[in-house]
Design a protein that fits this description.
homodimer; 5 strands; 36% helix; binds the ligand Nc1ncnc2c1ncn2[C@@H]1O[C@@H]2COP(=O)(O)O[C@H]3[C@@H](O)[C@H](n4cnc5c(N)ncnc54)O[C@@H]3COP(=O)(O)O[C@H]2[C@H]1O
């Protein structure tokens, strides 16, 4: 379709590649994850296995739930828990970055969509911002 | 332009109206704001004055900064601070919901854009999700 045609002029460039995507592992403590999230400023990031497969997501909101429900819990106490305790499942992912119709569909409900290869090795993410930049450009040309 | 034409078929329906937008006031405590954010599940919400004018934004990330940098700070200690202490400025807003070119432009950098009337009274928000839903629909028709 016309929208996909125009958006596809340069498929790879809207993928944020894995090497610049902040991430943690399931065995990291929640204190470590909390500090990573605060430092990079993202609200939710991928959880990867030691061999770079996508395992889940960790969010500031999920960690905040611990602080809210564990009485007197300060950030230091988060060292008693791991990312595995608060990890969220990956609802959607794609393995073909050119399937824009699917990606656009998924981005209606998810702020970013992980990209994995056929072996489930994490390749990067496609964000709403990258797609909107592209649509914005298209709307002006 | 064609994109704006198609998106404008039903301008009002992509605005999330003020009565369903979670918000706090600048004098609320950070503990209260933290609990509101956790309960509604949003990462950032508007701060309104008692007469419903848009004053700023409050985010989970900004409150987490307090928990991180005030040693031993537990959620209860957030009652010592107010939203005013951690409030963020409003970078972008619109007063005409049909100015889609401007809105699309702003949504590249902001997950939502507040809508205010000519007296700066808060009217609602326009989110990336609502715009993407519309673009998604358009791409299929
Ligand atoms: N450090 C920063 N510099 C500039 N703008 C920033 C920023 N942090 C956040 N934003 C803005 O806020 C939006 C929401 O960020 P959030 O962290 O909630 O949600 C993000 C985050 O969960 C994830 N994400 C984006 N880039 C990432 C990265 N390099 N590493 C890990 N996760 C990333 O994808 C979601 C959507 O990102 P998107 O760019 O569409 O949308 C971003 C972007 O427009
Ligand atoms: N309770 C829920 N139910 C269903 N989906 C949910 C949800 N909470 C979050 N999401 C999904 O996560 C996205 C990012 O939410 P976030 O709270 O970071 O960022 C939100 C939040 O800061 C604000 N927002 C959205 N609706 C709001 C509301 N009713 N009241 C206050 N703020 C709202 O606008 C931003 C962008 O919202 P958008 O809908 O584009 O994008 C939302 C939506 O796709």
């Amino acid at each position: 379709p016309a929208v996909e045609q125009m958006l596809l002029k340069d498929p790879k460039s809207y993928v944020i590649s894995a090497d610049v995507v902040a991430n943690v592992t399931a065995t990291n403590t929640l204190e470590h994850a909390f500090m990573v999230l605060s430092k990079v400023g993202y609200s939710r990031i991928p959880v990867l296995t030691p061999d770079d497969r996508l395992q889940g997501m960790i969010s500031l909101a999920a960690i905040s739930e611990y602080l809210l429900h564990v009485p007197g819990a300060a950030v230091e106490q988060l060292s008693r828990y791991t990312v595995a305790d608060a990890m969220l499942p990956v609802n959607r992912w794609v393995s073909d970055p050119t399937k824009l119709e699917t990606i656009l569909n998924y981005l209606v409900d998810e702020p970013f969509i992980p990209l994995v290869d056929d072996d489930k090795v994490f390749q990067g993410i496609i964000t709403r911002r990258e797609l909107l930049k592209r649509i914005n450009f298209m709307a002006h040309n």
